[in-house]
Structures are given as structure tokens and as C-alpha cells.
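Archive maintenance. Older records in this collection stored only the sequence; we are now back-filling the structure field for every entry so that each record is complete. The fields below show one back-filled record exactly as it appears after the update. Entries are processed alphabetically, and Vesicle-associated membrane protein 7 is next in the queue.

ARCHIVE ENTRY
Title: Vesicle-associated membrane protein 7
Organism field: Fistulifera solaris
Length field: 247
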Amino acid sequence: MGDAKIRCALAYRIDGGSAVCLAKYDHANEYEASGGAGGELYGGKNQDYAAAVAKVIENDPPSGLSEAGTIGGFKVVQSDMHQVIYGADTDAVCLAVITGLKYPSRVAIKMLQELYKDFMDGFGSSAKTAAVNSLTKKAKNTLKDACTKYDDLSKVDKASTLLGKVDEVKSSMQSNIANMLKNTEKAESLAEKSDQLNEQASVFKKRSTSLKQQMAWKNMKMTLLLGGLILVILIVILAPVINAMKN
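Back-filled structure field:
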């Protein structure tokens, strides 16, 4: 996946097909040493990144250079986790930067263009004849300033800032939608429970009505039974009296 962090910046001189490293600044190593990444950027190891980038440049050197005093012919070479962006001028001075895969290459090129001006202003004359790594200490601040400035995309790239805001809005919208869905599920659950209660109430009402009818019928039968019993008793009592009166 990679990230959007700057690993390091380097300066080379392409001499007879070989890339001679003049200066290098390990931004990721200093970032980790200050507690910024917890060993995640380089896996806690100081790898020989300068030699690796030199091979990349030698295998596919910058091309299409025409205007003196400017850097161009930019190339982007990617691995599983990193990418190397580099370019050179007509005097074979080559600048390179290693970044995470999510770092925009157009921003890295912008960084190299700005770094080229500062580097050449300070070390342009020395770069043509300097020995391997002889400018590392002298050019450290120049390389460091460029890495520090461009490591925060929000400060150097409006598009990245806008994309960041869009991502924030998307995240907020996704959260709101998730909450709405949860609320909808709760509402549906409450509605379902309400329907169940209504159904139970309807059943109870029907049973209550049926029970009332049954009780009324039982009461009527009991009344008729008692009435009949009383009538029989009256007949039994009154029949002898009536017969006696007739005699």
C-alpha cells in the first residue's frame, strides 16, 4: 500500500553512465529518531538507499534534456512500498527523492525543481567535480529544508488539501449514514414490536369479547335453570293447596 511520506533526498552526478552520489539526506531516519514514526518508514534499519537509487538512475537515466540551468527529464520508478522520482540538468547533475507510493509524483517533481535551484545556488560549481558523498554535510540543511517543507502535503499542494477535506466530508457522511441506518433499524424494530403488541391486544380483545359472550350465556342458562326450579317448587307447593280448595 505505501504511504504519503518522504523518505530521503539525494544529489548525483551522472558520469560516464555511472551515478555518483554527491549528497544525501535520510529524512525518514531522522523522523524516526525523533519519535515521529516508531520505526515504520524504514523498518528501523538504515538501508543503503543511495546505492539503490544510483542503480535505478543508471538503468533508466533522465532523458529529453534541452534547456540549460533547469532540471527535467523526470522519471518515476516504483517498488512495492516506495517510489523514486528523479531528474537531471544538461550538466548531468541529478536530484532524486524517495517517497511512499501514495505521495503525488507531481508534488515530488515540484520539490525537485525548487531543490535544484537552492542546491545549484550553493553547490553548483562543486557538483561538477565533487567526490562521492563529499557534499553530504555541506548540503544537509538544503536537502533537509526541502524534505521538511514537502513532507506536509497540506502546506505545499492545494489539491491534496482539497482531497483531504473531501475525505473528511466522506468520512463524516459515512458516519452519519451509518447512524441513520442504525436509527432506521431501531425504528423498524420498534415498529415491529408495536405491531406485535397491537396484534396481541387485538387477540386479547377478541378473547375478552368471546369470554364475555360465554359468561353471558352461562348466566342466562343459570337464570333459566333457577327460574324453572322455582316454578317447579311453586307448583309442588301450590298444587295440593289448589286441590284442597276445590274439594
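Update note: Confidence is low (pLDDT under 50) at residues 32-46. The helical segments are 27-33, 49-59, 105-127, 140-151, 153-156, 158-246.
Entry marked complete.
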